[in-house]
Every structure is written in C-alpha cells, then in structure tokens.
Design brief:
alpha/beta; Rossmann fold; six-stranded parallel sheet; 11 helices; 19% strand
C-alpha cells in the first residue's frame, strides 16, 4: 500500500512507457517486505522530455526522491546536472543510476556490471579474445568499458558514421580504463565478424516491433567462428533474429534480459543498502514476458 510515508524510486527517459524496470524493482521490493517488512518504497516511470531534464532533477530533489535510473536519451546529458559522478561513470561517459548524497545527487554506472555478469560464467582467457561491438551510441559505451575490464586482446567498434566513430574513439583517449579501440565503417563487417570471439549488438536493430530485422545478414553470419559468444542487448523479442542466426551456427547466445536484471539489482542495492532478491527480479521479468515454463 502506498502512503504518505512511501519513498519514491524510479526511472527517467523519453519515452519510458516501455520500461520493464518497474516490474522487476517492485517485485523485489515486495519480496523484501514479505520477508522483513522493513522498507516502504515504490518504483515509478517518469517520462521526461530532454528540454525538461534540468527542471525535473531539481523537482526530484524538492520532493525527496531517493534515487532513479536513467535511460535514453538522458544517460550523457545528465552528467553536468549531478553533484558527483563515480570514477566508472566518468570513464564510461554515461550514467544510468543516481542516488542521493548530502549535497545533491551522485551518478554511477551499473550497466557495465550488468553487461559483464553473464560473461563471467564462461571460463575464458579473455586476454586472447577479440570483441566486435556493433554500434557506437550510448549503450556501446558500457560494453566497451566491460570489454576493457575483461582484458580483451582487441576491441573493435563498428558504425555507420565516420564522424561519430571518430568522436567516439576520441572520447576514450584520456579514459582511466585500459581502452584501445579500433573503429570501422559498417562495410568492413565481413572481415571483422570472421575474427570475433565476442560479438555484441548495441543497436536497436531487431527490437520489437521490427522483429524480422538483424544488424548482420545471413552470408556475413556464415563467417562467424563456431563457439563464439553472440550477445544482444535487446531483450524483446526473446530471442531476437540476431540471436537465432547465431544459434543455428553453433554460437553461444546471450540476450539482454540478464544485463537488465543485473544492472537493476546493483542499482537497487545502492538505494536500499541491502542485498536484493535477484532471482525474483529475473523471474518477474520472465513472467511478464511470457518466458517462464
């Protein structure tokens, strides 16, 4: 039951109606309450247009919101509005989680932790592996940082705009992370796919409702090494056509649902300062998407 004492958490973006974060966060909060009856929180989506971001953040302070997640298009534009930014978020150049501190708001990035979580289950010598990242938007920044933390031998980023690719590479030059990027135009895809041990889609190509699309065509996918890991940050549909293409070629497929769960769990632990039921967060999302048996 929501009362005048209920504390607010949330996610900001535009649009944000599609976000599944309220599903998993509120399921976790309910589970913790059922076990301990110690917290009184609710997690809500807040649609905020880019031109209203500064006003909204000031309003959040005024009404005492405890913390919030950030999705497109605010992950980078929020940086100057924060009192403090974690070293990791500074290195990534993007914030996805914000929490209260004595003098305002501090931003951090749990997307990197979320991205890495399913990869850590594979006992690979990452120092011998080549990563190919499709796309050079905001989502790819956490993936680049994650690949750098893994220690990948090579990190390749492929995009469609040479100008944006150059700016993307420039933005990592002074990073405290050991990032050594190679950037490529989209027409180099065939050569790069054949070299990739880890292939990650950070683009929205193939996301619902465009479920028949894939960022890579069939002939190029035939060049993929069997046993490579193919990772799609998209989680609707499940699996995407991109992952279906990977599976029929003997690749290991990872969808974006686990990244969503793990980054969310890390954020909720920051806000509540207690461990959270990750299994319940995962189950609630799978149930919502009709993926549970």
């Amino acid at each position: 039951m929501i009362t005048g004492k209920t504390k607010l958490l949330g996610v900001i973006g535009y649009p944000v109606e599609h976000s599944l974060s309220p599903v998993m966060h509120n399921a976790a909060i309910k589970a913790i309450n059922n076990q301990q009856n110690l917290i009184d929180y609710v997690y809500l989506p807040f649609p905020i247009k880019p031109e209203n971001l500064k006003t909204a953040i000031a309003g959040f302070s005024a009404i005492g919101i405890q913390g919030f997640n950030i999705t497109i298009p605010h992950k980078q534009t929020i940086l100057p509005l924060l009192s403090k930014v974690s070293d990791l978020a500074q290195a990534v150049g993007a914030v996805n989680t914000v929490y209260q501190i004595d003098k305002g708001w501090e931003g951090t990035n749990t997307d990197v932790e979320g991205f890495l979580s399913p990869l850590k289950t594979y006992n690979w010598d990452w120092h011998q592996k080549v990563a190919l990242i499709l796309g050079n938007g905001g989502a790819s920044r956490a993936v680049v940082a994650g690949c750098a933390q893994l220690g990948c031998a090579e990190i390749h980023v492929i995009g469609r705009s040479q100008e944006k690719l150059a700016a993307f590479r420039q933005s990592w030059i002074n990073s405290p992370l050991p990032v050594s990027l190679k950037i490529h135009k989209w027409d180099e895809m065939s050569r790069l796919v054949s070299q990739a041990d880890l292939l990650v889609n950070t683009t929205p190509i193939g996301m619902y409702p465009n479920i028949e699309q894939s960022p890579i065509d069939e002939k190029v996918f035939d060049l993929l090494s069997p046993g490579a890991i193919v990772y799609d940050l998209i989680y609707i549909p499940n699996p995407t056509k991109f992952l279906q293409q990977a599976l029929v070629r003997g690749a290991i497929a990872i969808d974006g649902l686990e990244m969503l769960v793990q980054q969310g769990a890390a954020a909720l632990e920051l806000w509540l300062q207690k461990s959270v039921p990750v299994d319940i967060m995962r189950y609630s999302l799978r149930q919502h998407l009709g993926l549970n048996d």
